[in-house]
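ok here's the first one, seq then struct tokens
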Amino acid sequence: MDGPSTDSTTTDLDKAPSSGPIAGPVIGGIVLSVLVCVAYWLVLAGAVPKWEHRGQFGDSFGSLNALFSALALAGVVWTLVMQRQELSLQREELRLTREELKRSAEAQKETAESVRKSAETAQSALRMQGILAATYSMEFQPDPSERAWKGRTKLVLVNPSTLVLAATVRCSFRVEGNLADSLPEYDGKAFWWLYPGQNSAGWFDIAPILAAKGVTADEMHRKCTDETRRSQFTMDLEIEFEDETGDWRLLPSRRHFFDFRLQAWIPELTSTRSPFDQTARRASES
């Protein structure tokens, strides 16, 4: 059987403030007063046996009574002073406790604010990762069975994110340097809806755009040379994506030209100005 544990524990009684500085003198004063009273009556009974003489004998100790009264008053004053000191110590402990609680509350508030900002940053980064992944592809798709050449081109917008996106497409077609009209879907006047993890595809024909400017694909093919092929029929493609949370991304305008000899869209790899000029302008407008 195990012996009693020797581990020391601290109880609430151990933490209670000691009353030694006040209790000792008070108890001593009470005991001394009782002893003096008993001794006084014993001496009085032996020295003055008659009751009529005891009053006179007691009156002779008037100065002694005044001394004891003064001592009692001094004891009361001393007790009050000690109590005042203890109250001061308690008030100081309470003040320190309040300051510590205040510092703890401020630290918890700062921690909560830091956690909130971190969560907002992570959420914003997650949203931006989704919209930054949005992209497009473009492909020329001629139909051999067509009697007349249309120059059909397929444009696909890709949304790999978990949010709904809205997109606007501006093609800015030019025929031999002259701006040409196009359908609202390709002139920035209509929204393309891209649902989470889905693609949206559209088609436009080159022939009607050329016809609006009074030329045909055969004429463009005959006039196509190494010097003219890059400017005969061009498109400055600009796509803007916006998600349901309000974040947006503007893909910089990129020029493509249609090579009538190769029958293909070819993107320009270089430009004479920064492609981010329009992005900066769009950011300043918003």
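and now the second one, same deal
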Amino acid sequence: MNDHEFLFGPLLSSQRSSTSALIPEDELLGLTWALNEKENSIWRHSLHRVYFTASWGGLEGTVGRQRVAWGDGRIWNPLDVINPYNPLSIEKEERLGSDAILIKNYFNELSFIEAVYVPKRKFRGENSIFLGRCRANFHAIDWGIAGGKKAEELLIGGDSAAQILEGSLRAEAAYIWGSSLRKDFIRAVLSYDYSFTNTLYLLGEFYYNGIGENKKESYSKVILKRGEQNFLGQTYFGFGSRYDVTPLWIGSCYGILNTNDSSLFLNPKIEWKALTDLELSLSYHAFLGSNTSEFGPLQEVAFFQVQWFF
């Protein structure tokens, strides 16, 4: 998958990392080329998917730049430690990949085991990722368990998804320990979403972030690492809605509430499918809260996006 993009605006110089979908990682291969990068503009070309796949019976192997997406959460994914994305990003649809070796064995369409190795550019064992996961379906409920090692930290967790009252109920949790720099902690998600027949979609998601603090005065104590969904608080509520006004016009609004300091992120958006391969959208990022809160100090931004698919 190729991504050729040009970004322009004062936001890039003030909070580029806060609104970028690119959560930086030390990938083995450098597949992003900055054609021209200045304080208020970026022109770059990236290859997000370059991989080779081979299969034999139920066994499948994939090598190269790929997305390894684990977890069931819609906004947060405690188990997605390989390719997490930034919920505050402008391009939420953009999902990056990692240079990895993935081996998967299917028992049936809904059950499999898999193992993944993600080497890093410096190629030291303590920087690489080794993970395994088992996924199965029992009594119409999806169950999963995962574990492994990311850098010096160890991880174990699980996820589950089921249809409840014609909507989807999802749960996911991970326990991370073994760091010499920060405490052991739990991250967990519980979410529910529902799609109405009139195209209205609603989402609610609760997130517990054990590495965070429940008082904003203690945010400076939080030790975050590269390649994570970095949030400073301890508890959050995410919500969203989407509605097809017409087949060509779509309105949506997503938000995140930090329940510890009451700061709020809101993202209303209107999309127009102008042509089969051309989409235009107008969106706004609002950050509400005090200057000492998590979201309050961030700069609000409106942006217009043109996407041409070919």
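notes on #2: The mean pLDDT is 85. The helical segments are 11-19.
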